[in-house]
Amino acid sequence: MDPRTPNIGAVARAAGVSVGTVSNALNAPDRLAPETLERVLGIIDELGYIRSSAGRTLIRNAADDFSLIVPDIDNSLFVDIARGAQLTAAESGQRLVMANSGFSSRDLVTGRSAHDAQDDFLGYFAEARSGGVLVCAMRDPTTGIARIRNHVRPIVVVNFDVPGADWCTVLMDNEQAGRIAVDHIADLGIEHAIFVSIPDVVQPAAARRSGVRQAAARRGVAVTEVDTTALTEAAGRDVTSGLIDSLAARGERTALLFLSDDLAIGALQVLRARPDLRIPDDVVVMGMDGNHRPSGNDWMTMTSIELPGYEMGAEGVRLLTAESDPSHAHERVVLPVRIRPGETTVGR
Predict the structure, then answer these.
(1) Which residue in 199, 180, 196 sits closest to 188, CA to CA?
(2) What domain count does the chain have?
(3) Distance between CA atoms of 133 and 140, rounded to whole angstroms?
(4) Could you tell me which residues come within 8 angstroms of residue 235 by beta carbon, excluding any fewer than 6 positions away?
């Protein structure tokens, strides 16, 4: 066997066919007789030949693969979006290449400059002539998209709303998440809630706060808003520790509504040590991002909002495919969220 890296010519010589026949075996196998196809594929395996996509990209000025940029791989929402996009792309024979831009809302909340390679990856995928890019954004992607727009089409933005955008958009109804939370506790007869969130530095936080306010005004629920600097269990413990004495003195059933499930878990850890504050008889606890997956080891199952991450990724790929048609009109798709009731609000 030739020790050098095998090329398509070596495959053709070993199989006794033309280079065009080898190309057909890889790209249009239905054009070949079964015995020819079997012989060529056998030689490809024997020689360890791997075709290069660079030539096809150069000829077509576009690659076959789709690309996905996510802001924070630690966030389960973006993991679900990536999974939905990847599996949906695979159904039509497309591959999905993913990049993590490293955006962190924690940096914005604490006043640090957020590391965000979103525009860098947009440029990278433009250089690679990606067959289409899904931009799962936590900040306005307009500038980065404008820079590459003449090199990459189609482009679909997921999770960030730009009014009048010149691309398709896939969103979830974050305001609905806030409305559902307040409607749920109002249906339980609760008249006062404490809403714990980071400041409105990202669209989802602002939209859920808006939904909470809308539903509170409609249902007559008094809401106290408390800001925190993180969406972690530790932050949930700190906030709840600061509220615990006032909760005990309040003398009425109160709801703690948290922007994230991790915050809510931290609250449960504090409340568990206070037998005078029973869950859900004295205090109900609810998260809003479906991040915590129930398990048999949970002390209590937690009420939360399930977010349609998988569906968002799948819809994004559908729109990438649709946008390949020059006559396709841009779509703005908003997917609903749904409540997942648990023992922290409805009891056992």
Answers:
(1) 180
(2) 3
(3) 15
(4) 228, 229, 262, 263, 266
The strand order across the sheet containing 192-197 reads 222-227, 192-197, 254-258, 283-286
Distance CA 263, CA 196 (A): 8
Q: Evaluate whether 257 touches 283 at the Cβ level (below 8 Å).
A: no
For the domain that residue 212 is a member of, what is the CATH number? Answer: 3.40.50.2300
Residue-range definition of the domain harbouring residue 26: 8-51
Does the pLDDT value for residue 165 go beyond 90?
A: yes
The three-class DSSP label of residue 193 is: strand
Are 181 and 275 part of one and the same domain?
yes
What phi and psi values does residue 81 have, to the nearest 5 degrees? -60, -45
Same domain for 300 and 192: yes
Length of the chain: 348
Question: Tens of pLDDT along 38-95?
Answer: 898 888 888 877 765 544 443 444 456 899 999 988 888 999 999 999 999 999 888 9
131 close to 65: Cβ distance less than 8 angstroms: yes
Q: How far is CA 46 from the centre of its chain?
A: 41
Question: What pLDDT is stored for residue 196 in this prediction?
Answer: 98
Residue 2 lies in a domain: no
**Distance in angstroms (rounded) separating the CA atoms of residues 273 and 288:** 23
Q: Which amino acid is at 310?
A: Y
More confident: 297 or 159? 159
In tens, the pLDDT along 176-235 reads 999 999 999 999 999 999 999 999 989 999 999 999 999 999 999 999 999 998 899 999
Task: Give 90's contacts (C-beta < 8 A, 6+ positions apart).
Answer: 96
Co-location of 228 and 303 in the same domain: yes
Q: Of the candidates 319, 289, 330, which has an alpha carbon nearest to the alpha carbon of residue 306?
A: 289
- First CA to last CA across the chain, in angstroms? 69
For the stretch 295-298, contacts whose Cβ atoms lie closer than 8 Å and that sit 24 or more positions apart, written own/partner, are none
* 104-207-213 Cα angle (round to 5): 130
